[in-house]
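Colleagues,

Please find the record for the two-part complex below.
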Amino acid sequence: MPAVRSRPGPPVPELPLRIVAIAAGGSLGTLARYGVDRALAQGGPGFPWATLAVNVTGSFILGLVVTLTTGRWERARFVRPFAVIGFCGGFTTFSTMMVEIAQHGQHGRVGTAAVYLAASLVGGPAAVVVGMALANGRILPLPGDRSIPDPDDLGLLYPDPDPDPDRGPDRDPANDPDVDPDRVTR
Amino acid sequence: MIIAGVAAAGALGAVLRHLVDRLVQRRIRSGIPLGILLVNLSGSLTLGVLVASGLRHGIPTAWVTVAGTGLIGSYTTFSTFAFDTVRLAEADRRAVSLLNVVVSIAAGVGAAAAGLALGSLG
């Protein structure tokens, strides 16, 4: 995505792995859009609520995730390909919006086309800004140190086998804080 | 069956978008995000052709849904377009941001209308 090149972000995975992440996210995003489409479809020349809804919601998610991966999840290599390029890209759609505007215009519903276009052009970028602000803690200040666990950090799941390299393997269990639960000093 | 088709087409569309975007961005250095612009314009034209010829020739709805909603819908993207608009404006490149919006919308609606006209011909 060209949008993220100007700012430092997480390292980019190799192309084959990136393709897998994009395909998985794109598949989920497209299914979600299809679901919203089915749920909100009116089956007539009504206002295209479904496309407007996915485009504004997807823009919000993109602003949120891009900001989180820039500031905090620096090592989350697969979050951007999966969530941003894959999910948000597949969830939102430009071509459907263009065809809907052209069709409304061709059938003389210029007002509907204009309102739809204006709502998308204001709502999309505004949703990006809200998503970015939320991720930066400007809307709902997060309590504590505001650090969000790195989802790719396997250290959270698998504790360091040897936390102190200076301590030999034949340490005294009586003086070991790891053994005595009353003497946890770390 | 349609759901499986939409899921597979959506995966393909997203990967295709990434590859086209990368190819364009690598070759042409430009202030405007040309890769996504090319993706969105070519997708709008193709979807116009598909929708119009689908109606004219009575192509089964399942096929139009998989190709249109699945493949082309996922190939084109609005969220990156919206993000680029904000990113360029925040980087004090408001003219480029506005130019990208105007070109994307004007050429996008034009491409979709041309596609609809083309598709209802043949």
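The mean pLDDT of chain B is 95.

Comments are welcome before we finalize the supplementary table.
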